[in-house]
């Protein structure tokens, strides 16, 4: 397709912000204090959302936009974890029935956390998840809530960027973890509309570096799930960014970098010790780029989005000591 | 003394809120989600302050109120940990020299964390700390910043209550941990001024239950430090509430309850797993009263103040699994 897709705008994101305010937390931007008292960066603490990740924003907004007939038919979605929980929770708050298709490789912690919000769960092999969700949508009339390649979802995730711009007057750099690209699309759109001079950097695990490869090549790349599944960052294993997301990234992102598994785990421990909230490895990826020295600070405050905190207690205990 | 002391008022606390806004975080109120999806209470996440505890509020305000001559002479304080860090950090931000007297029983994590903010540290036996701080004040002209028995400090800590009242429209109960009583005094004063019908409950470790005993007896009680030091909640080992604090508690608090060591440690783990931020045992004491069933919910939302998160990583790892 050669026509450019219409990108999400600041007014779209502002509408989303108003719509989700009663369900989603306005999360704080918290300093990461190193042992010597230095503060190399601040963290947007999305782990504190009721479902433990930023995904609640997009899911809440997508469900808020349904009309009465759609609400009666319910929603369906597919996700490795955090989007699943988000759709289940947002649907429950909105009084809408939800079915979630989960790949059989998803961490059991995230599966159980989805079940508790009352959603119906269907477990399938990773490669079948989209087809299965589409089949359920076709058969039951349920509305598919896509995890990232969707204007409403992007606008919802973009409220993270809106809040950061409001919360940090001297913002210099925003770092955003990337999987399908919903968070980086919306965040970059909001930040660049409000503060064109702020640098927006997308960060990926090296082992799921499809966007970094595509960024260097100048065209969207798709990796195998077998490859992206190697990373410990289980929330960032999507095989490529979405089509709409790629367009946003090209329009609004300044750079794409990758971090190693070792850097991700070190950052996970450092955030829990130095900023005193819980992150899962995926949630530490953006900060890892600064802590490992991959992204150098420029003028102004550096903020990394700590995208989620759904991690097994045993894993957390291991990175702590 | 039979004359009643003048209590801190809502305008005092509102002035403090304006004064500390640039240094202290407006912390979020975060849901504690149990494994079955129930949310028994919400937590005011003071662990996220730059020094990891609410103490930064009172220290920042007390230092902001110094005049130019006092600022030049510097400040001195005594504390087992979180107030020490708070004074050191607030003094550094304000460009004021700080000396902190620390009891030799304080956790080394808290001592190191104080040192990194550039304060001068003096270590003494617990019983000598007030005398030592007063001696330094007398000899150097430094201004003593008391940990709790002080109008400015109470007004600063009261901003926690002000924020809770603003953040939670249907507030029913606020639970506050007690040691010297600074936090409960200010929080209760703010909450009762704004919402007289909201219940304010003070919570102590049973092993440092001087206030619970005094509350039952109708007069302030002092315990031995040997007794209060038995609790794992190392931030709550003060031997009694302050005189001014006792007056606030009598005026504004509805009930005082205690929790066991086992309940404190269970709540610590449950908060980290279910609300995804770090608390030290002292910071879990207020929530423990609800989680253990000691305080039953009434109408409206229940909020417990999670007062701090300065805990050794090894201790945290132990309560997690």
UniProtKB/TrEMBL annotation, chains A, B:
Its cofactor is pyridoxal 5'-phosphate; Mg(2+); Ca(2+); Mn(2+). Catalyzes the anaerobic formation of alpha-ketobutyrate and ammonia from threonine in a two-step reaction. The first step involved a dehydration of threonine and a production of enamine intermediates (aminocrotonate), which tautomerizes to its imine form (iminobutyrate). Both intermediates are unstable and short-lived. The second step is the nonenzymatic hydrolysis of the enamine/imine intermediates to form 2-ketobutyrate and free ammonia. In the low water environment of the cell, the second step is accelerated by RidA. Keywords: Lyase, Magnesium, Pyridoxal phosphate. Residues 25-308 form the Tryptophan synthase beta chain-like PALP domain. It is an enzyme of class 4 (lyase). Belongs to the serine/threonine dehydratase family. One of its GO terms (biological process) is D-serine biosynthetic process. This is threonine ammonia-lyase. It comes from Mumia zhuanghuii. One of its GO terms (molecular function) is L-serine ammonia-lyase activity. It catalyses: L-threonine = 2-oxobutanoate + NH4(+). InterPro entries: Ser/Thr_deHydtase_PyrdxlP-BS, TrpB-like_PALP, TrpB-like_PALP_sf. Its EC number is 4.3.1.19. CDD domains: Thr-dehyd.
């Amino acid at each position: 397709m050669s026509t450019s897709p219409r990108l999400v705008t600041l007014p779209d994101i502002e509408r989303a912000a108003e719509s989700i305010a009663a369900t989603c937390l306005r999360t704080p931007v918290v300093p990461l204090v190193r042992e010597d008292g230095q503060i190399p960066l601040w963290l947007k603490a999305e782990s504190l959302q009721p479902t433990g990740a930023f995904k609640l924003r997009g899911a809440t907004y997508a469900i808020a936009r349904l009309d009465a007939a759609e609400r009666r038919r319910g929603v369906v979605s597919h996700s490795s974890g955090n989007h699943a929980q988000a759709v289940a929770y947002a649907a429950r708050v909105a009084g809408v029935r939800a079915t979630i298709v989960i790949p059989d490789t998803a961490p059991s912690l995230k599966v159980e956390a989805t079940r508790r919000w009352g959603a119906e769960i269907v477990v399938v092999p990773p490669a079948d998840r989209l087809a299965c969700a589409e089949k359920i949508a076709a058969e039951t009339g349920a509305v598919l809530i896509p995890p990232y390649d969707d204007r409403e979802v992007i606008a919802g995730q973009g409220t993270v960027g809106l809040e950061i711009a409001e919360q940090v007057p001297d913002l210099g750099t925003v770092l955003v973890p990337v999987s399908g690209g919903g968070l980086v699309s919306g965040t970059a759109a909001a930040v660049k509309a409000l503060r064109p001079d702020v640098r927006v950097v997308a960060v990926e695990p090296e082992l799921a570096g499809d966007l970094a490869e595509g960024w260097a090549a100048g065209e969207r790349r798709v990796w195998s799930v077998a490859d992206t599944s190697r990373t410990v960052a289980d929330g960032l294993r999507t095989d490529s960014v979405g089509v709409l997301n790629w367009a946003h990234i090209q329009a609004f992102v300044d750079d794409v970098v990758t971090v190693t598994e070792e850097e991700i785990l070190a950052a996970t421990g450092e955030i829990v010790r130095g900023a005193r909230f819980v992150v899962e490895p995926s949630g530490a990826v953006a900060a890892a780029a600064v802590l490992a020295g991959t992204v150098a600070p420029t003028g102004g405050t550096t903020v990394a989005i700590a995208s989620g905190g759904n991690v097994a207690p045993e894993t957390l205990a291991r990175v702590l000591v």
